[in-house]
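Run log // design_07
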C-alpha cells in the first residue's frame, strides 16, 4: 500500500499561485500513476490533472489547462500541482490519488480506478 499526504493549500487572492505537494510513503512511488482531483461544496468531485509513472505523460481538465502544471519527483516520492492564475472557482478541497500500474505511460482521468487517496488540502481563492 501507499500512503499519501497533501500539503500546500491555503488562502490566495485571485490571480495568485499555490503549489500543492503530495508526499507518498509505503511503496515505491514510481510504480504508481498519480492524479489530482478537487471537490467544492455541493459539487461533484472533478478531475484536475494526472501524470504517468515516469512523468513523461500528463493530462489536464479543461478548466485548468494552461494554468496548472502537474509534476513528480520519484526520487523524493512526491508529486506536485503548480497552480497559477487562480480564480474563485478553483476554490475546493484538493486530493491527490495514486493507482498502481504496470504501464509506464498510463494516466488516469477517472477517479474510480485510484486505490489510494490523501486526506485533502483546502484551497480558497478570494475575489
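design_07 sequence
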Amino acid at each position: 500500500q501507499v500512503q499519501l499526504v497533501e500539503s500546500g493549500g491555503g488562502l490566495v487572492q485571485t490571480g495568485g499561485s499555490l503549489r500543492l505537494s503530495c508526499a507518498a510513503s509505503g511503496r515505491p512511488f514510481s510504480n504508481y500513476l498519480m492524479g489530482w482531483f478537487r471537490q467544492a461544496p455541493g459539487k461533484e468531485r472533478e478531475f484536475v490533472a494526472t501524470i504517468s509513472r515516469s512523468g513523461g505523460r500528463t493530462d489536464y481538465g479543461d478548466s485548468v489547462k494552461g494554468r496548472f502544471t502537474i509534476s513528480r519527483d520519484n526520487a523524493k516520492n512526491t508529486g506536485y500541482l503548480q497552480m497559477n492564475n487562480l480564480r474563485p472557482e478553483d476554490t475546493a478541497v484538493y486530493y491527490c490519488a495514486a493507482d498502481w500500474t504496470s504501464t509506464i505511460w498510463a494516466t488516469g482521468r477517472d477517479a474510480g480506478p485510484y486505490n489510494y487517496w490523501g486526506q485533502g488540502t483546502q484551497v480558497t481563492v478570494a475575489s
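The first strand starts at residue 3 and ends at 7.
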